Amino acid sequence: MRTEGLLIISDPGNDYQNWKSASTQSGFATPGYINSNARPETVVAQGTITIDPEVFIPNSESTDFAKINYAFEHAGYIANIKVIDQEGHDIRTIANNETLGFEGFFRWDGDRDDGRKARMGYYAIWVEVFDVSGEVLTFRKRVVIATR
Fold this sequence. Notes:
There is one protein chain. The strands form two sheets. Strands 2-8-7-4-5 form a five-stranded mixed sheet, with no helix packed on it. Strands 1-3-6 form a three-stranded antiparallel sheet, with no helix packed on it. It has strands at 48-52, 55-56, 66-71, 78-84, 90-99, 103-108, 121-130, 136-145. It has 148 residues and is an all-beta fold.
């Protein structure tokens, strides 16, 4: 029995579809905590990716990184996330085949794969997620590295 909109959701514990390992970000296990695959109270229809904040200053006293937030209709997506510069070059791989829960975030500090800091300017956050059924979702979001 499933009662949407209420906190009580009762699914059979012996149904294999109700058992999933926790997400990569939580170390595939969450002993003593809610599993990253636990269904949230509100469900996102197709999936969303947001960047918070869209403009940040690395190594500053204020927010010095960008959070790449995600929320999906179901857990179990696999994510690839890259930062792309204005010339179309991949400068940073944030996630490579990472298992996702229903919602969570990744962090970008404004660095490159080679360890150097990225230059001031506009960048694209490219997110591709896919699941075992073959469904693929692609998102492109803008982020800006600023300076004082």
